[in-house]
Amino acid sequence: MLIVRRARVPAALLAARPAGTPVDPLEPTVLCDVAIEGTRITAVADTDTGGLGLKPLAREFDAGGSLVFPGFVDAHVHLDKTHTWHRAPNRSGTFAGALQALADDKAHWTEADLHRRAGFALRSAWAHGTRVIRTHVDTSAQWGERSHAVMAELRRQWAGRITLQTVPLCGSGDYLAAEAERLANLALHHGASALGGFLLMSAELPAQLDRLLAIARERGVGVDLHVDESGNPQAECLRLVAEAVLRNRFSLPVVCGHCCSLSVQDHARARSTIELVREARIGVISLPDCNLYLQDRRAATGPFPRTPFWRGLTLVHDLMDAGIPVACASDNVRDAFHAFGDYNLAEVYAQSVRLAHLDARLEESVRVVTRTAADLIGLPDHGRIEPGAAAHLLVLEAHRFSELLSRPSASRLCIEAEEIHRPQVPDFAELNDR
Ligand SMILES: [Zn+2]
Predict the structure, then answer these.
(1) pLDDT digits over 183-195, tens only?
(2) Residue 295, SS3 per DSSP
(3) pLDDT tens, residue by residue, 8-27
(4) Which residues does the annotation mark as catalytic?
């Protein structure tokens, strides 16, 4: 047994506290002792009310009042596209430019290339404290077998360290085509956790969604969709997904990523869509860094592009106020959709707080990269610090939220099962030779 003493744990990541227990809204934490046996947390107790007491046979580690988080959960990334920026840059910074750059780059996606880039990403994520990743994988009738096979191999290699989930990414039109069954089978054969797709407004979209939900129901999996990643107020795929879920009485998990256009729609219309999303029990994953990069690119009128003013976020607070679970994740990292990133969820969290003013709801904000993210992808024993949860703890170089949010790149001590270590991020130079 290992006992971690004086761990300053965010209150929203502990099991439910007794009603009326006060938590400081500016520092919503509780000083705790945490016991770990094997791969599980077995006990948590308030240090200030006696803690876990003496355990003669246990090893001890004193966290000294540092902030302690559970391992991060990155619920939406693209490991097949990652780290291709150096050979497939997006010179316009637009969505169309990204599609073209990566379509051309796919000629390089050999097994060795995919393994090398995705493996580097996993090592970076591991060093930053991420313990669960869900990646979307480009999949079509002609494409995807190799990428899914590489991700399945990486899942085996990283088992016990990072839980790696996959979801196929294809056009929603593919689900009306004759290849739909083969596409779903390909992904699920390689262990996919849900079916996915990139949705575009069209007259066929309701029928496409009906077919997708029917296939998902047959296979017993949920769906995880790319939805309304644009500033076009006419883009209402989120509303159509909610209507399809309700029309089909689909009861498996449904997650919608992005949902950017919701924030440029008429407020009454957006409110009614949010109500449908709540009724359909859909979860939302916001990708703030990627939206910041890609949304509101404006055509140059001179030597420089025009200044963006819409920053692409969905209506995070309105969704949360309605009781809809909202997570935040990395999305693309160092590819044509987003030129930057390092799979550092502390940085994604800090950016999300700054961009969405989540400091206004600081206590629950920590759940966007932990508890809520884990719940949305079906892993309710991750992203929290409570008895029965996976024993991944991050001892951060911060005692207060202001410190964490000011220096999210600081290294962190990791506790896995009963072992303590400080992993190092790999050197970008490894990727520079091709
Ligand atoms: Zn994505």
Answers:
(1) 999 999 999 999 9
(2) coil
(3) 999 999 997 767 778 899 99
(4) 229
pLDDT at 220 over 80: yes
Q: Strands, DSSP E only, in 334-423? A: 392-396, 412-416, 419-421
Q: Which fold has domain 72-376?
A: TIM Barrel (3.20.20)
Q: pTM of the predicted model, to two decimals?
A: 0.97
Cβ count near 238 (within 10 Å)? 28
> Integer distance in angstroms from the first to the last C-alpha of the chain?
46
CATH 3.30.530.20 fits 2-70+384-421, yes or no: no
Domain limits of the chain?
Answer: 2-70+384-421, 72-376
The first and second tokens of residue 202, run together, are: 């069209």
Interaxial angle between packed helices 237-247 and 267-279, expressed in degrees from 0 to 180 and rounded to the nearest 10:
30
Count of all residues that appear for the chain in the document: 434
Tell me the pLDDT tens digit for each residue of 312-325: 999 999 999 999 99
Measured CA distances, 29 to 12, 22, 106, 372, 392 (Å): 8, 10, 46, 18, 18
Residue 235 and residue 264: Cα distance in Å, rounded? 10
Q: What are the two backbone dihedrals, phi and then psi, of residue 238, each rounded to the nearest 5 degrees?
A: -60, -45
Distance (angstroms) between ligand 1 centre and the Cα of 133 equals: 13
Contact criterion met (CB below 8 Å) for 422 and 414 = yes
Query: 374 CA to middle of ligand 1, Å?
Result: 17
User: How many angstroms separate the CA atoms of 311 and 286, rounded?
Assistant: 12
Token pair belonging to 405: 């949010």
The enclosing H or E element of 133 equals strand 130-138
422 CA distance to ligand 1 middle (Å)? 30
* pLDDT tens-place string over residues 386-404: 999 999 999 999 999 999 9
